[in-house]
Amino acid sequence: MKFSDVFSMFIVLSTLRSAVHLILASLAGVISERSGVVNLALEGLLLSGAYAAMVGANHGGLAVAILLALLVGAAVSAVLAVLVIKYKTDQIVTGFAFNILAVGVTNFLLYVMFGDVSYSPETAQIPWQAFCTVAVVLVGVAHVMLYHTPLGLRIRAVGEHPRAADTLGVNVYHIRYLCVILSGMLASLGGAYLSTSYLPYFQKEMSAGSGYIALAAMIFGKWTPLGALGASLFFGFASALSIALQGKTIIPSEFFGAFPYLLTLVALVGVIGKAKAPAADGIPYDPGKGR
Amino acid sequence: MKGRRLFNEVLTSVMALVLALVLAGIVVAVAGRSPVLAVEALFRGAFGTPDNLADTINRTTPLILTGLAVSFAFRAGLFNIGGEGQYLVGGLGCVWAGLTFKTMNPWALVPLTLICGMLAGGVWGGLSAWLKSRFGVHEVISTIMLNWCALYLVSFWVNSPTSPLKDPSGEGTYRVPYTAVVPSYIGTSIYSGIAIALVVAAIIWFVLRRTWLGYEIGAAGLSPLAAEYGGISVPRAMIVAMAASGAMAALAGAMDYSIQGRIPSTVSFLGKGFDGIAVALIGKNEPVGVVIAALIFGALSAGNTELQVAANVPKDVTTIVQGLIIIFMVAPDVIRQLLPFLKVKEA
């Protein structure tokens, strides 16, 4: 292993390329969880966004691909929002069920629409740099929105102490619906990146756990947009490194694969500063109850 | 009163199952395939021939165990999404023992391999409960992270050139000797794992109903503060429950890989641990319910093959059914609104 193996232009570009969908999906997690709703469906949203974008790209071009992905993301997360906000279902189990459904539905559609069990036809490709720029800009926008606008203050208030926010006239439910749907659109956009930019086709179960890594990045980034960006880049770096160092080092490649997950556990245990979730994260709001 | 509650519980489960199947049927119809043909194919594939029936039973076995694993952890108030990882390390422990002690008498070797698998899974599961009680790490996050760690750990043992278990052919680990394989019943292709799974279900039922440990775990799950006040060590109850849960999911993996003879080089999540969540929800966390639910899912999964061949319906439709079932089970209010007559039964 040489120094130039680790710090080269190749690694920098490869890091960015493998981080774009993580940035978008972890940002999606931040937006949802700051308002107090755990979004475990990131994985499923990535997958359905990827599928929708591929269909759009095949039937109308790249602009349609993005629009369709955003639309599907909004629709899927709206259903999720109704279940967890209105019906107060368990957010974790519900999000988990959505991930299973996304796998079933995309595989089903892939076979029915294209007669293939693993791959879709090839689509046109959006340059990854464009996606990357948009992702980073969105992180900036989210940061400004969360910390420097009245809406952001409301979102954070709803996530920390919904009852207090409610008392001051903030509609807890509206804020949460907004955030979950925004979150769905962001994650779905991350999915669009996978199928129209990272690869020029949809592949069965192509999100391959990225949604869970995004969740890890969100935690590691302490539930902030900038933190999530940093953590996503870091995880992207880990995966770029594992590709670049394959066969060049005694460290097994499996170690790099497990690295983001190990690191998240370490972060949660508090070795790298305590990672603390928003106080009302995961708790349905019921005006009649004590909280 | 009790009978009525039981009736309601069973009714919700049945309704969730029926609704999910009907919705999936609509999806199949919209896709231009025949739902009738699909149901027929599914039944034939699951029960049509003695071989298909054996397949159903063999697929039910791991689901009973992963379902029990999830439901046992639920009783302690923990949501074990880590079944996938525990299943994998269970397989690794079992194959490792099978290869290491291969000269042993089969009467000792088979139990030993299964115990080694269960130990690995027990540690894997207990770890997340310990992280929760010691550091306040939410078990859902830690089990998800540990799933991936397990995947890479097992992949390392199976594929790394430095691994002592790796078969030079590259097909996976070395094959365990046939003396280490869980046997099938003579004259059938039904593996004896089903008996083990049913015994485990009976043990769990007994532990939950008749023992101090079951009481402690239930109390810790229902109200940790009250349990602590009553002199129960909640961290201990959580760790014991989660270790047992992990061991059960691992036993499923151990038996599956034992029958397969090796861990193949394509190490991946097989979904058995995740299926256990749906099984536990449908079975309402009761051992008897879990066994019935596992049989339903086992049949669905065995019938799958026929589904694709005979009705030209992609087998993923059963995955859709599963997702829908979970949603309906966590949202009983949605069912009640869709089917208003159920409201009357609310006692």
Can you describe what's shown?
The complex is a heterodimer of chains A (291) and B (347). Chain A contains 13 helices and no strands. By secondary structure, chain A is mostly helical. The mean pLDDT of chain A is 89. Chain B is mostly helical and 347 residues long. Chain B has helices spanning 2-30, 35-47, 50-75, 83-100, 106-135, 139-159, 193-210, 212-222, 224-229, 234-260, 272-282, 287-311, 317-330, 332-338, 342-345. Chain B is globular, with a radius of gyration of 21 Å. Classes of the chains: A mainly alpha (291), B mainly alpha (347). At the A-B interface, helix 6, helix 11 and helix 13 of A face helix 6, helix 11 and helix 13 of B.
The gist of it:
The complex is a heterodimer of chains A (291) and B (347). Chain A is mainly alpha-helical.
Succession of helices and strands of chain B:
HHHHHHHHHHHHHHH
Are there runs of chain B of 5+ residues with pLDDT below 50, and where?
none
Shape of chain A: globular
- Report the helical percentage of chain A: over 70%
Biggest pleated sheet of chain A? none
Q: Unreliable segments of chain A (pLDDT under 50, ≥5 consecutive)?
A: none
Q: Tell me which protein chains meet in the greatest interface and how many residues each side has.
A: A-B, 40 and 45 residues
Mean pLDDT across every amino acid position of chain A: 89
Key traits:
heterodimer; A: 291 residues; mainly alpha; 13 helices; globular; B: 347 residues
